[in-house]
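Prompt: May I have another protein with tokenized structure?
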Amino acid sequence: MKTIRLTAAQAMVRYVSAQMNEDGQPYIAGCWAIFGHGNVAGIGEALHAARDQLQTYRGHNEQTMCHAAIAYAKQSGRKRAMMVTASIGPGATNMVTAAALAHVNRLPVLLIPGDIFANRAPDPVLQQIEDFDDGTISVNDCFRPVSRYFDRITRPEQLLTALPRAFATMTDPEKCGPVTLAFCQDVQAEAYDYPENFFVPKIWGQRRIHPDPVELDSVINAIRAAKSPVIVAGGGVHYSDATAALTRFAEAHNIPIVESQAGKSALPWDHPLNLGPVGVTGCTPANDACEIADLVLGVGTRFQDFTTGSWGLFKNPDRQLVSINVAAYDAVKRGAMPLVADARVALELLSKALGAFQSTPPAPAPKANWFKAVDALTDAPTDNNQLPTDQQVIGAVQRASGPDTVVMSAAGTMPGELHKLWKSPRPGSYHMEYGFSCMGYEIAGAMGVKMAQPERDVICMLGDGSYMMANSELATAVMMGVKITIVLTDNRGYACINRLQMGTGGAEFNNLLAHSHLGENSQIDFVAHAASMGATAVKAANIAELERALAQAKTAAGPFVVVIDTDPYPSTPDGGHWWDVAVPEVSARPEVTAAHAAYVTNKKAVI
């Protein structure tokens, strides 16, 4: 057997560079890196030597580098992923939040934090925690609960098993998620005679799981027996490349579709069988269909509480829940009839078996009435002297968008309003991180989306709270010349949670700057701040100026930031559903007592 002598870090980089996807592209599209004493000598040297095969990108924050990598994987439909490396200590733990985000959303990312010395000779090294009861513990053990696969590399030859396991996890449709290989810093520099065939290029295909015949027959019979079925489209529809199959299935059998946050854009917004967003941030026609449905067919959804209205949405006492999912864990939730299978395969087999079966198509009036109600909210205002609403901002961005636009966001007001109001023209035009709803994902995520699909027009919508949480990768986007448009709505605080606080009977407290200790002293010039990092930045005084700025953004080079002040209070009154947010049983505030009484009533209505 021929061997080649490499350091462990060199071997890892060479192996990573040789892993391909079905399209013949490198599965790992690049490495994000911030170097420190735990990875600069070993991994840093290896990445430099391989810079022509594996591009290394420099970020400004370990968490947001991971956000960019995760957004890249999401927009790529999980067909490609990225690697992120950081030093030991705070560099590593900064990535833990992003690992949790990837875990919740079932998205692949390869995390390589530096670790302490395997030989323990210089212990305790700089940034090393010391566990008084366990000598094997380092800060990287924080990654264990938020990784789909975790390993600590304490010997060079461990890569021979650890790396194939890592890629098997990231490319597995069921287990897909973050992988953490904690790499002891002395081991990175140690050499070993690796077999040459370990580095032969390998193709990682997309495994399409076929259903069990018994489960398939059960679901076929359940659909045939249904009088008012509805399909809940989740993110798995996109990752399975099943959007066309879902459309054919719905059209063949006249079954309406509702979309979760992750499933939105599975069908064009104006398709007659697309009833729109579902759940807490859903629209009236979709939620009304779910309330009476006697069969709820989930396709690639994990039935998050925002999708199910905290399980209070499906009100038909005789309803049957069916779940098509590659993960048995998700397929059996809430007593669902499972169909463990790839979404595209399952839909095609079901449609063939159902033959000429058709349900009663949905009436067009509810959907038409919905848009009649909400389109008025997104229209340009006639009075430019009042603060615009978030709905009006969304309307302006929608009018400036085209078929190649991807709108994206993650936390705060925008996920709910965009889910209800955004009209997605085709698959992949709506990118929302709403599994972890992580503030600070937006700007780095927009950069990742654009890197994944350079031909798309990427518009990031976020509030001032998220901008202040993590904005440093705006400088990275400038440095790399990544063209994204950022619409920053300044409502002077955390307006979304302020509304929730009020909705549960609480006093306005510590969310808007005006209601926080010394918050009135806050004076932030977001235009100047964005411009200081190299972005083109402008302030829009009203919706008309916002529309002109968005037109200007189309011809600008690099990141373009539009800041607009908005009213923190209005939200879309139509649609929506109760959400289980526990209200205190005892309070001196009568508003809280009333909210608790309503909470108890709603809890009793959950089937």
The mean pLDDT is 97. Residues 367-565 form a domain with the Rossmann fold fold (CATH 3.40.50.970). The first strand starts at residue 3 and ends at 7. Residues 590-604 form the longest helix (15 residues).
